[in-house]
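User: Can you model how adenosine-5'-diphosphate sits in this protein?
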Amino acid sequence: MLIVHKYGGTSVGSLDRIENVAMRVARARREGNDIVVVVSAMSGETNKLIEYANHFSKTPAKREMDMLLSSGERVTAALLSIALQEMGLDAIAMTGRQAGIKTDNHHTFARIESIDTKAMRRELDEGKVVIVAGFQGVNEAQQVTTLGRGGSDLSAVAIAGALGADACEIYSDVDGVYTTDPRIEPKARKMDFISYDEMLELASLGAKVLQSRSVELAKKLSVKIVAKSSFSEDKGTVISKEDEEMEEVLVSGIALDKNQARVTLRQVADRPGIAAEIFSALANEQINVDMIIQNASTDGTTNLGFTIPQSELERAKEVLSGFDKEFGSADFDENVCKVSVVGVGMKSHSGVAAKAFSVMADNNINIEMISTSEIKVSMIIDQKYGELAVRTLHDAYKLDR
Ligand code: ADP
Ligand code: ASP
Ligand code: MG
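Assistant: Here's the modeled complex, given as structure tokens:
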């Protein structure tokens, strides 16, 4: 079998932990499997590098950020390879570029366009364990790019897809996907299976156990993901196609996203085209606008509220400053969070949303914004009630069963 392993920051967070990973990889290899390992930077490393850059600039050039941030995973890949060689295994570490990963030009949030697997194949054929630095590739001009935070998951899934691997095992410090973040709700239950669609919602709504783009790609390429712990022997959670049994589950999980900020523009000139102009300008800067609320207009002006990732707030302020003649004032609130209820069963049952709103009401939590889709209900609330909301919703839908 050909298996892709991916080890996240915590799993390679110290030299001892890299040694532990080396032992796990060596065991899988000695069982006769071909192994490609994708690694993250040691935990905290990427944040530290971002802080270093911010020491010089609040808005550093993105190309240079990619030069900087891609270094973290390169360190881990080389160290793991050295550790494996010392154990008597043949191993080779590669950068994203050496592994043939080609991306678009979108520095710091690049999309993988193709993978030329020749080099990886050659090394696998020679019996080597191939170790690839995650989170990176090169664009057409051979410039290093990175894939967005948590992007090593995406590297792993893309490589598994390109090589036609039998599975993509993603190792972190939790032994699978839980009904909610077990750090917030200790009663959270581990799931044996979850569908791509539900996992995609949970991941994009804040459950960082898997990066959402990686789940999207896994669905597209039919890559079987298994979420596992690098510290246990648990069989983990399989993420795969939805089956009939899954449809019977009304709610499968609760997600919390603290990386949210709310922008309110007051006294916006109420004329056709204004929303298009503002939101196009934000989109051009790759700022992801999520929920939007526009109030009924009074005396020719209106209030426009929307949410964006907190990490994009500085850039949003810059973009909006170009529109200052179009509105009276702008305020920015970082003390909000988004709590979401996810489940494929909602498609065929009513009352799930109403129940979520009642739970908030019973706990005196004010809902500031709401959005729903076929399989999720999301609410923006005060950040200080985020974890309480997760626990009470988890209880209300009896997810600990
Ligand atoms: P890595 O650094 O290995 O990529 P992450 O820190 O990105 O790992 O993801 C693992 C973390 O995801 C866990 O420690 C856990 O706190 C968090 N998490 C959030 N939601 C969930 C969930 N529903 N199930 C499991 N873990 C979750
Ligand atoms: N090191 C990168 C990050 O912290 C990528 C990853 O770990 O997946 O976001
Ligand atoms: Mg991660």
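A couple of observations from the model: Residues 2-173 form a domain with the Carbamate kinase fold (CATH 3.40.1160.10). The pocket of aspartic acid (ligand 2) is lined by residues 8-9, 40-41, 46, 72, 134-135, 149-153 (CB under 6 Å).
User: Helpful, thanks.
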